[in-house]
Design a protein that fits this description.
6 helices, 262 residues, seven-stranded mixed sheet, globular, 30% helix, two-stranded antiparallel ribbon, alpha+beta
Length: 262
Amino acid sequence: MHKSTTIKAKAIKETMSCKLCLKDKKLVRQSHIIPAFMYKDIFDEKHRLFEVTVTKDKDIIKDRLRQTGANEGQILCQSCDNEVLGKLERYASLVLFGGVPIKLQNITDVKGMKYTLCEEIDYAKFKLFILSLLWRASISKLPDYNNVNLGPHEDKIRQMILNSNSGGPIKYPCVMASYRNLKEAPHQFIGSPGLVKDGDGFRYLFLIGGVLYIFYVSHHNIPDWADECAINSNGELKLLHLTKKGASAVFKNFIGVDLLNN
C-alpha cells in the first residue's frame, strides 16, 4: 500500500464518534476510566498499582502491576477528555485529597454509626464527577467493567455530564463508605464493579482505594439512609466509616474472601 494511502486510512480510523459529545473527532489514545488520582495512596514507590486477586484455594496473591489506573483508547475526544471530564476530575481530586476549603466533622450518631460530615462542596461538580465514573465504566469495553451496563440510563447520564446538569439529589445518588480508618485493612485492593439487585432496586458497587461507592441507578425504593448520606444540593455528604465487620463484608462481596481474617 502506498504510504499516503496508509496515512489517510490511519487518519480515518482515528476520527470516530466521541462517546460523550457524539461528534466525529480525532479521539485521544488513552482515557482513564478511573482517574489516576483516585489510586493515590495505593501506588507503590515506583508508581505501580498492585491488583489483588484470589486463587482457587482462596489464597491472596498480587499477580499484576499497572503503571497507572485502568485506561482505554479511542473513546473520547480531546475536548471531552481534557476539558469536560478533566475539569470535574481536578475539582474532585482537591475535595478528596485536600486543596479546597471544605468543612469536615467526625460524628457518631445515636445509633453508633460513625461518619465524616463533609460540607461546602460544589454539588454540581462533585455529583457529575461521581456520575462520570459510573458512565465511563458503562461505555468501557475493558473486562474489569463487564458488569456495568446502564442501558437507557447511559445516555441520560451522558447528557447530564455533557450539559453540566447534575439533576436533583435523588437522581442517581451515590453513597460513599470508607475503611481507611482501619489500619489492618489492605488499602491497595481494587475490585471490579459489581451489580446488586434486591428489594431496593438495583445498584452498582465500586471499590477504589479503600472507598466503597454505592450507585443507586433505579429511581424506585431508594432507602432513606442512602438519601441522607449522598451529596445534597447544599453541598453536604456523609462519608460513612466502615466497621471491621462491614469491611469484611465488602471484601467477601468483591472477591469471596475476608481479607481481614484470612
